[in-house]
Amino acid sequence: MNVDERILNLSNLSIGYKTYRGVSRVVDNVNLYVNKGEKVGLVGESGCGKTTTMKTILRVIDKNSIEIPDGGKIEFKGKSVLDMNNAALLELRRNGISMISQSPMSALNPVFSIGEQLKDIIKYSEHYKGSNDKQLTEVAKEAIVSVMLSDPDRIMSSYPHQLSGGMRQRICIASALVTPRDLLIADEPCTALDVTIQDQIHRLLKEMVDEKNRSLIMITHSLGVARELVDRIYIMYGGVIVESCRTEDLFLNPSHPYTQGLMACVPRLSGGGLSAGIYGYVPDYVNPPKGCRFAPRCKYAMPICQEKKPEDYEVEPGHFVNCFLHADTTYKLDVGKEEPHE
User: Do 65 and 20 touch, CB atoms closer than 8 A?
Assistant: First the structure.
């Protein structure tokens, strides 16, 4: 796809939190892009930097608490997000990008009713500019019904604390989908929902993105969810994108040892015993490993992995792996022989 069709582009982005121990480098040199109308997955374990990366795109993290080294870029529709003033940021959040938070109690204002909050979102959208209160109310009710919540009149008059966790999560999803946006960021949108509702919400997200030709970034722990929903996948470990490619290519040829470890952890219908999991722990971000951040947990680690950061190597067209094992294309990993680390 043509580079001109890219709606979002992150290049050499590093992010560090300022802590009493020093700077916690939770995101390290991330490169990521999303094309117009494309669905992209960002997969990784808790604490690997997925949410921090996405919140930085919207600049909703206090700028005094983080550090972004020079050279890192976030571009939305060709404009630098890191250089935007307050007016441009408001426009970006109102009409450009919406985000479904995984924490609905922090996303919803406790002192305003659900109806007031939804109508405020709709009122300031370019699409509904000039609408009267009755029209705003109808649009808000339709949004509530669209996320499988009954009795929209009662919910409109309710406050966040009067709803269950799952209902609040669905209101957050309705808030993100109620107005047309070019890019939707879904951060574990179904964490608080039961399995049947999860499937319905995933289908709704896919339909909304496809029908309106929107772009989607789905943040998830689940490779299964990513496989069903997205066109391309980025695998993230320890703040680093370790593998990126088309979804089907990832499942046909998982090439990074971490990706293979994730695949091996998925239970199989055919049985075969319990997975041993991935040996070790996530790195200390204040004092991360000098070389590859996955090296302390990798059974394939070589001396160079301890000393130097790997580059992104293209193992097949559009399939990039951040691993020295692929610097020499004659080296092939045996995916089927995953063994516990000694």
Answer: no
193: number of Cβ within 10 Å: 21
The pTM score is: 0.88
**Is the Cβ–Cβ distance between 289 and 306 less than 8 Å?**
yes
Backbone angles phi, psi at 108, to 5 degrees: -100, 140
Kindly report, residue by residue over 272-304, the tens digit of the pLDDT. Answer: 656 667 777 889 999 999 999 999 999 899 999
Element of type H or E holding 157:
helix 152-157
What one-letter code names the amino acid at 310?
Answer: P
Q: Check if the beta carbon of residue 50 is closer than 8 Å to that of residue 44.
A: yes
Would you list the DSSP string of 13-81? EEEEEEETTEEEEEEEEEEEEEETT-EEEEE--TTSSHHHHHHHHHT-S-TTTEE--TT-EEEETTEES
Q: What is the largest CA-CA distance in the chain?
A: 67
Contact 13, 56 (CB under 8 A): yes
Contact criterion met (CB below 8 Å) for 34 and 183: yes
Contact 20, 6 (CB under 8 A): no
68 phi, psi to nearest 5 deg:
-120, 105
Strands (E), the chain: 6-19, 22-35, 39-43, 66-67, 73-76, 79-80, 97-100, 183-187, 215-220, 232-237, 240-246, 312-316, 319-322
Among the listed residues 307, 323, 299, the one whose alpha carbon sits nearest the alpha carbon of residue 241: 323
- Pair 128, 122: CB distance under 8 Å: yes
**pLDDT tens for residues 82-101?**
999 999 999 999 889 999 88
